[in-house]
Specification:
2 copies of one chain form a homodimer. Chain A is of the alpha/beta class. The first copy, chain A, is about 30% helix and about 35% strand. Chain A has one domain: Rossmann fold.
Chain lengths: ~190, ~190
């Protein structure tokens, strides 16, 4: 998606440790013109796929998921993060490892809101190592829900995690695909 | 807002401790038809007020703020919660007490994204005791930003916190105003 790539080139800051800072337009301060365009593009990419629900993870996926949900006319569910395993039987729960904070956290959704009749589109801001997505896919599995696909704002292609998902036959669409990045510049997959 | 009141009556569950559970349509599973209507109503209520930015707090305010930001054509900023005071000089920071979890947490926004040239609309899902809003207002004060007003999905009028803000001359608009609630029923302010 051209507008996303242009925004990354203009506003993104590459930091050591393969970190791309996009807080000025995507995951703290949100450019809502771009957000609206992203939502329309996600709706276009998954039109006719029978999506009944969007699932994301708090906090930075919520804005993208909400905008896409409005554009697609489907409800949005967000999984919550807990630092402890203190969860009861009313939820589906899984464990995700955060490399950023070097800790495990529990991710839960209420059993009331995800079921075997759902066809789920996963939405998140970044795809790097794929650990958060694996957690969301596990929650869908536990609910017996079908995976319609995955929509990501920015994929770090150089980790290989996105291509491994595609090789499994999953419909993964990323609005910007970063092939390589350094302080000298960013290259997108064409 | 009629659609919000109807949804609360149909889906809301009143729990002991003056808790209203709205997870099925507002703050975990999100009804995006209602969300779109809420965004349009917030845009209508604050039209012509010169709003340059929407400020909310993670996580459950983000969806409403994002939808309103798209409807109003203004950027959305969300304040982040930290359990520790381990924040550096690049952020505005304040302390909010959570009655739900009975603990203090730090709320921060980057100094890069809020300034004295901003006229800010605060958006959140609930107004109960007003502590989260007071924190957001403090962040605006620190930035020298002007407060345009406050938009809330559900106000618990019986706490008096909303009326105290109105008495200060603040333009506070709540899409549903609950005058009283118990397991026997919910009464809205007309």
């Amino acid at each position: 998606m051209k507008q996303m790539e242009e925004m990354i080139l203009r506003e993104g800051v590459v930091l050591p440790g393969e970190i791309l800072k996009v807080g000025s337009f995507l995951n703290q301060n949100i450019d809502t013109t771009l957000l609206g365009q992203m939502a329309e593009e996600i709706a276009r990419l998954f039109e006719g796929q029978g999506v009944t629900k969007i699932l994301t993870i708090e906090a930075s996926g919520i804005a993208i998921a909400a905008a896409a949900g409005i554009a697609m006319g489907v409800p949005v569910l967000f999984a919550k993060k807990h630092k402890t395993s203190n969860v009861d039987g009313s939820v589906y729960s899984t464990v995700v490892h955060s490399f950023t904070h070097n800790e495990d956290y529990h991710v839960v959704v209420s059993r009331d809101y995800l079921s075997s009749s759902d066809k789920v589109l996963l939405v998140d801001d970044f795809l790097a190592n794929g650990k958060a997505l694996a957690g969301l896919m596990d929650l869908c599995d536990q609910a017996g829900a079908e995976l319609a696909g995955i929509a990501i704002a920015i994929e770090k292609c150089f980790t290989g995690a996105g291509d491994r998902l595609r090789e499994q036959g999953i419909k993964l669409e990323s609005l910007a695909m970063i092939e390589s990045m350094s302080e000298d510049g960013i290259t997108f997959r064409s």
